[in-house]
Amino acid sequence: MLIGRAADLTYADVTPKAVYLNRRKFLQAMGIVGAGVAAGRRIFELASPSQRALAATKFSGLVKSPFSTTEKITPYEDVTHYNNFYEFGTDKADPARNAQKFDTSNWVVSVEGDVAKPSKFTMDEILKLAPLEERIYRHRCVEAWSIVVPWTGFSFSNLVKLVEPTPKAKFVAFQSYYNSRQMPQGRWAGIDFPYVEGLRMDEAINPLTLLCVGMYGESLPNQDGAPVRMVIPWKYGFKSIKSLVKIKFQSKMPPTTWNLAAPNEYGFYSNVNPNVDHPRWSQARERRLGEIFKRPTLMFNGYGDQVASMYTGMDLKKYY
Ligand code: MTE
């Protein structure tokens, strides 16, 4: 995915965590433990349980979602230390390291465009929009790694109903927060900010589309998109935009960050599809973080029953 200044380094070149961890074990066995390993250890210390409790809000009384998978949940440490959040750097370890001081207080999400009731929501207001659920979703990155995460949130459709889209609203455009002073590493990311994403209206109101405020029963860590992000489990991970500040309903298909950066590699729809390879690597299989062997990738990431009908008659090779 890396482009621009970092064009010689691609998503496929990034060392998968399992391989990296095994290499670390090998180096430790050989007695070769370098500065990089020491740095890695420091990151893990920052996320010790006591640190987590200090920084995070614990949610209680979460409703269990019928959409949850029963698959094994990926460990918290893996999910929070192997991230894509280019505003904080392009290395998988960068967001956990660089987002610690990200100030998310006084957060406001603006909802505008073709709606009868344009609104601005504070985080307190968002938390009260609907009962908070725990939804355990598979999450598949376009780079062929995947995780299983217990997210906290509710269907995005709850917010949509409230603002009353007009008949003109055919798409929803999403925009992330961006501030180069808070996110200085973004200058070298090779993509334009603010990060933008989009969904077709029917995708946006599909019950699986989650407005997400937490994970593992707590508020979102900064590196995972605090304080509010989207999670769209049948699409590649890059559609799940982090640190959301603007939602706009509109008649036109909105531009999306990775499509702008490399249109032949990343389409608007970006549904998980093992039959359509990325131009530079296969999408047929994936590696779950923490596991050694790859597993087959499922069509629509295994959510076909709930979403396939939205794409009836569409050539998914053309609309990738
Ligand atoms: N949102 C913003 N604002 N900036 C980003 O760089 N990266 C995307 C997506 N949302 C990204 C973003 C990509 S490429 C992926 S795979 C997922 O976030 C990663 O989510 P995770 O770190 O929670 O696994």
Please specify the SSE layout and strand pairing.
Layout (H helix, E strand, L loop, with lengths): L16 H14 L4 H12 L2 H7 L7 E2 L11 H5 L13 H5 L9 E6 L5 E4 H5 L5 E8 L4 E11 L1 H7 L7 E6 L19 E5 H4 L5 E6 L2 E2 L9 E3 L12 E7 L6 H5 L23 E4 L6 E2 L7 H4 L13
Parallel strand pairs: 1-4, 2-11, 5-12
Antiparallel strand pairs: 2-3, 4-5, 5-8, 6-7, 6-11, 8-9, 8-10, 12-13
Bound molecules: ligand MTE.
Q: Which tags fit this structure?
A:
320 residues; alpha+beta; Sulfite Oxidase, Chain A, domain 2; eight-stranded mixed beta sheet; five-stranded mixed beta sheet; 10 helices; disordered N terminus; binds ligand MTE
Shape: globular
Task: Quickly count the helices.
Answer: 10
Mean pLDDT rating: 88
The hetero compounds bound to this protein are: ligand MTE
Q: Which structural class fits the helix and strand makeup?
A: alpha+beta
Sheet with the most strands, sense and barrel status: 8 strands, mixed
Distance between the termini: 16 Å
Number of extended strands: 13
Q: Identify the CATH architecture.
A: Alpha-Beta Complex
CATH class: Alpha Beta
Q: Domains counted in the coordinates: how many?
A: 1
Strand content: 15-25%
Rg, nearest Å: 19 Å
Q: Low-confidence parts, pLDDT < 50 over ≥5 residues?
A: 3-50
Series of H and E elements? HHHEHHEEHEEHEEHEEEEHEEH
User: CATH homologous superfamily name?
Assistant: Oxidoreductase, molybdopterin-binding domain
Helix content: 10-25%
And the CATH topology? Sulfite Oxidase, Chain A, domain 2
